[in-house]
Amino acid sequence: MPKTSISEIKTFARELTINFSKKKKIIPSKFHYDFLGSIYFDKITKTKEYYVTNSEIEILRKISKQINQLFGNKLTYVEFGSGAIDKIKILLSSKVKFYIPLDISLDFIKKESKKLLKIFPKLKISPTYCDYTNYVKLSNKIPGIKVGFFLGSSIGNFYNNGEINFLKNAKKTLGKNSYLIIGVDLKKDKSIFKKAYNDPSNSAAKFNLNLITRMNTELNTNLAIKDFEYVSNYNNRKGAVESFIQSKKKQTIFINKKKFIFQKGEYIQTEISNKFTIKSFSNLANNTGWKVIKSWKDKRKYYSIFLLQS
Ligand code: AVI
User: Fold this and answer.
1) Residues contacting ligand 1 via CB (< 6 Å)
2) In 3-state terms, the chain is what percent helix, strand and coil (to 5)?
C-alpha cells in the first residue's frame, strides 16, 4: 500500500488541530482520499444507490459530440481533482492534443495518465501535483482554448462557501477566454439521498470511518472503529447531505502533543455534500464571474452538467 508523504501527513495534522479546536469538530473532505479512501470511494460509485456517477456518465455520453464540435481541435483540457480517467476518456477525442490533470495525489494521476495514453497515444499529458482549490499557475506555453473540468459533484463538498473561492480561483487558473465543464448534484426527494449515502453494502460508512484508520496510521492515535458510528442525513435548511462519525464513548487523542476529547455522543462532521437547483448554481456561477452557456440534465433529472465561460 503506497504511503502518504510526510508533507501530506503534516497538513493532515495541522488541519485537524485547527478543526478539532472548534466547538463543532469537522474533518475536511479532502482527507478522505488516501489510498484506502479512494478504494472505498470507488466502491460507493459502483453501488446501485449512488446515482451521481451513473447520471453524470449518462450526460457526458450525450454531450461529448457537442462539446468536441464546440471547441474544435485547438484546446487543452485541464481537469481539477482528476482522479480516475473513466469520465475524461468519454470526452476526449483524438482531436484533443493536451490534457493537464491536477490532483493532490501525483502517484495516482501518473498511473491513470498511463492508462489514458494507451487509448490516445498522441495525447500530451502533463500531470500536476497541486491543491487545485487554490490558484494554480499553468505554463504559458499551453496551446489553444483552456477547457476545465470539475466533475463528480465535488463542488458540493466545500464547507463555509469554499465553492465561491474555488470557482474564482479556477477562473484565474484557466485565464481569459476559457471554459469550465462542471458536474452539479441537484436537489431532489430526500429519500434518494438517504439511500445513496446509507447504502446497504456500507460503502459510505466504510469510506467515512476510514478517517479513523487514517488518523491511527498517520497521527499515531489509538482509536477503534467500533467506538464510532457513521451517521448521514439530509439537512433541509442547508440543502445538503451532512455526514458524521459519532463517538460512542468519551475518548481522548493527542495530535502534535495537543489533547482533544471526543465526548460520548459527540458528532464529528466528515463531509458536507451541498445540493443545488439550476437557478442556485447559475447564480453562484454568475456571482463568481462565470457566464452560464448551457446546462444538461440526466433523464431522471437528478444531476446536471454546466458549461461555463469565463
Ligand atoms: C466526491 N463527492 C462528491 C461525494 C459526495 O457525494 O459528496 C463523496 C461521497 N460521500 C459519500 N458518498 C459519496
Assistant:
1) 44, 52, 152-154, 156-157, 197, 204, 207, 271, 273
2) 40, 25, 35
Nine-digit cell string for 233: 442525513
Question: What distances in angstroms separate CA 161 from CA 33, 167, 229, one per listed residue?
Answer: 21, 11, 27
Strand ranges for the chain from DSSP E? 75-80, 98-103, 124-125, 128-129, 145-150, 179-185, 228-235, 240-247, 251-255, 258-262, 267-274, 291-297, 303-309
From atom 1 of ligand 1, which residue's Cα is the shortest distance away? 154
Of the candidates 43, 28, 38, the residue with the CA atom closest to the CA atom of residue 199: 43
Grid coordinates in use for 221?
A: 492515535
Confidence of residue 74 (pLDDT cuts 50, 70, 90): confident
Tell me the one-letter amino acid at 275.
K
Do residues 228 and 212 lie in contact, with contact meaning Cβ atoms separated by under 8 Å? yes
Kind of pairing between the strands at 145-150 and 179-185: parallel
β partners of residue 77: 99, 147
- What mean pLDDT is predicted for residues 208-228? 97
For 141-158, what is each residue's pLDDT tens digit? 887 899 999 999 999 999
**pLDDT for residue 148:** 96
Ligand 1 centre distance from Cα of residue 176 (Å): 31
